[in-house]
């Protein structure tokens, strides 16, 4: 899942991004509304964590523009204003969820994950295929009942493959969903990650390479 964090308080923005990355999400950061619109113009995000009071382009206007463009990402608004009328107003302009500051980080992650499931076709809470199971909420992976310890990127790549439900996923799609905008598109990181993931999943191999196209589980 790929997330955009829009927050002008840099320490908070970076802390949110770090926490989400630890949960195996790909995260980009914009420190103002103009930067948010620039990034959504070139990247596809599943969820946008949007502070309502950001400079250059107000968060409300960012939300309105994305809704008008029918941008597919789900939007969760963050704000220091937690009154009922503020929450109602935020939802009325197109936000999908609303979280008042200060908030518990575990709740933010749970809401981001929930919105991510709504951004795409509905998925079961535990993804399973070919004896491999992945529980995004518990961060657990198993094959035929054997628990497997994965790095954050390996977990993210496996989640993308399982979510595809047997369809081929290209290297470009994996870069889009499992890494952020700072990754070099010409890097071999996908191939290296796939090698280590296959090794940890064990035999017989369950990840197929489709030459010139991508990977399929």
From TrEMBL:
Cited Pfam families: Response_reg (PF00072), Trans_reg_C (PF00486)
DNA-binding region: 124-217
Domain of life: Bacteria
CDD domains documented for this protein: trans_reg_C
Signal sequence extent: none
Keywords: DNA-binding, Phosphoprotein
Domain Response regulatory residues, every copy: 2-116
UniProt keyword Hydrolase, yes or no: no
4-aspartylphosphate: residues bearing it: 51
Boundaries of every OmpR/PhoB-type domain copy: 124-217
Xref: PANTHER family: REGULATOR OF RPOS (PTHR48111), TRANSCRIPTIONAL REGULATORY PROTEIN CUTR (PTHR48111:SF36)
Protein name: Response regulator transcription factor
Protein's organism: Actinomadura sediminis
Highest classification ranks of the organism: Bacteria, Bacillati, Actinomycetota, Actinomycetes, Streptosporangiales
